Amino acid sequence: MVPLLVVLLLALLLFGAGFALKALWWIAVIVLAIWLLGFIVRPTAGGRRGRWYRW
Question: Is this structure's pTM higher than 0.70?
Answer without folding.
Answer: no
